Every structure is written in structure tokens, then in C-alpha cells.
Amino acid sequence: MDRLFMTIATGFGTGYLPKAPGTWGSLLALPLHFFLRQLAPNHYALALAGIFFIAVITAGQAEKILDRKDPGVVVIDEVIGMLITLIAAPNNPLLWLLGFFIFRFFDIFKPYPIRLIDQRINGGMGIVLDDVLAGVYSLMVLQLICYAIIG
After folding, report:
1. What is the three-class DSSP state of 92?
2. What b/e string do you get for 72-106 counting C-beta neighbours within 10 Å, with b at 16 or more?
3. How far apart, in whole angstroms, are the C-alpha atoms of residue 15 and residue 104?
4. Pick from 38, 24, 40, 45: nearest CA to 91
5. How far apart are CA 99 and CA 89, in angstroms?
6. Residue 38 zone, left/alpha/beta (φ > 0; ψ -120 to 50; rest)
7. Contact 125, 74 (CB under 8 A)
């Protein structure tokens, strides 16, 4: 069971890629977003809820397995954050890429209250919630940009 938890928590191993595992996890969300839009366009939010639940459980278990707080190899939190960023994005890969860069900005710099959540909430919920909030911030910025460009 530990192997399954680690496989999911590490984004099917992308968290083990060299340098910037969070970036790799965020990139993993792009094809996942594409497939969710194709396979379940009317159920995207429901899929996000399921992924959130799985992310909290697997991230918490990975933390216990590795005996480290918020281990860098855990990237399922970046996946859910990116999917939140893109939930309302137009079907345009360039805008998805822009969403990726916006999300990475918020995930790395952690403006208030993201850093506070990162520091105060422990376990799987703490690992995931700061990225969820970074995803919400990124969603808002991306939507403002889309509105300015598309109208």
C-alpha cells in the first residue's frame, strides 16, 4: 500500500525528477487537465474534489512514510493547484501555459495567507491547502487576464 501512496503522491514519479520537483508536478497537471476536459467536461469540479481528497490522503501518508514534513518529492499538491488554476481556462494551450507560470509564481513566493497556511497546518491537509490557495489566486489572475484579452 505504501508503494501506491508514494506513486500517487509523487505524481507517478515526477517528484523524483532532478531539480524543481514542484515544477514537474505542475507540468504533469497540463495533460491531466486536457484529458479531464475531454473525458468529463461537465464533471471537472467533481473530479477536482476527488483529486483533492486523494491528494490529502496520499500526501499525508507520504509524509509518514518518508518521516519528513512536506517532502519535496510529493507533488500531488501542485497537480491539484494547477487543475484549480485551469478549471475555467478557455480551451487554449497558450493560456494553460500562462496559467502554469502564474501558478508557479504563487506557489514559490507564497503571498499572504499562503505562507501562513504552509507553516501552521500539518499533515496532508497542510501540504495540499497552500497549493489549493495558490491555485485559487492563480485562477483569479488568469481569469482577469482572459477577460482583458478576450473580453
Report:
1. coil
2. ebbbbbbbbbbbbbbbebeeeeebbebbbebbbeb
3. 15
4. 38
5. 8
6. alpha
7. no
What is the identity of the amino acid at 132?
V
Tens of each residue's pLDDT in the chain, 151 residues: 999 999 999 999 999 999 999 999 999 999 999 999 998 889 999 999 999 999 999 999 999 999 999 999 999 999 999 999 999 999 999 999 999 999 999 999 999 999 998 889 999 999 999 999 999 999 999 999 999 988 6
Peptide bond into 113 cis (omega under 30): yes
Cell readout for 95 is 493560456
Domain boundaries, the chain: 2-150
Place of cell 501506491: 4
**If 0-12 CB within 10 Å is exposed, 13-18 middle and 19+ buried, where does residue 60 land?**
buried
Torsion angles phi and psi, residue 41, rounded to 5: -60, -35
pTM of the model: 0.96
What the block records as the C-alpha cell of 10 is 509523487
